[in-house]
Write a structure and sequence with these properties.
The protein has 13 helices and 8 strands. The chain has about 350 residues and is α/β, with parallel strands linked by helices. Helix 5 packs parallel to helix 6. The longest helix is centred in the N-terminal third of the chain and has 19 residues. It is globular and about 55 Å long. About 50% of the residues are buried. Bound molecules: iron/sulfur cluster (SF4).
Length: about 350
Amino acid sequence: MDFIEALRAGVEHRRPTVEWLVPLLEAEGEQECLLLHAADRVRAQMVGEAVHLRGLIEFSNYCRRNCLYCGLRRHNDSLERYRLTREEIVETAIRAWRIGYKTVVLQSGEDFYFSTDLMADIICEIKSRTGLAITLSLGERDKSAYSAWRKAGADRYLLRIETTEEKIFREIHPDDDLYERKRGLFVLKGLGYQLGSGVMVGLPGQDALSLAKDVIWMHELGAEMVGIGPFIPHPQTPLRNEKGGTLEQALRLVAVLRLVFPYAHIPATTAMGVLDPLGREKALQAGANVMMPNITPTRVRPLYELYPNKICLDENADRCFDCATSRIISLNRTIGADCGHVIRQAAS
Ligand code: SF4
């Protein structure tokens, strides 16, 4: 299929196939511009001009796993570890609510210190005192934990698949299993969570065909929020000498996702801002409609180092909100006035 046929298939929201996804994911030059513009138009038509702000609280950098690309991996002995207390997490969420956030994202490594009961207690407290929408990003847990947290008031769960290519998944996740990750996503869906997944772009061995297969799998899953992280090699990990992903790869994938998931929430991720100071703005103009300003207390923020050269380390929560707002307004977009739940009835 040539590029123009592929773009037409995408804009018409046809069922994704590798035949039309691959030419779009490989677009360069003028074709790449056409793709990004088409995605921006679809974004405007389907989810409008509002950008939803999610306040991100990174409350623990302990992790039981050893993902080869991640600075939080268990074997990274050079990293100083921290955990916020229950009270600090709740207070940070309350502060976010007072600033004007409608959603908080509670994120950590896979840290079982935060037991099912402790997390349920934190979720319940935040919900009852603020009414905020609560997104969890805590990695893989069992069904009883997911279920307890849903009952406690969690609305959404983010669990990125990273790659559906069995060989790559196994190589970069020495202590994890692709089948289990997939199964967990279906369990979360069955429990009624608004479901987020996503992939890492630029991984060793990955190509346009494997990304196309990832997109098709997430479509079959029925993902409602889809996040893209460019792979940025971390010096304290085994992948330190790999090449890493580019902003261009990430933007093409954001644009393709907007065509495939016209109603989904797609973030302009902070990792894109690491590769280019205007990376998040570029993503918002290529199909994205969400930003996740970091509201973690600044004293621990540098320690949540999934990848190096993290940005927004010194700004307090108020300044991050103001900075995100001004970036959004500079694009003639608006700040989401509600909590930006997923749009289920219209989802393809
Ligand atoms: S990617 Fe997640 S699960 Fe893997 S080491 Fe990092 S924090 Fe832990």
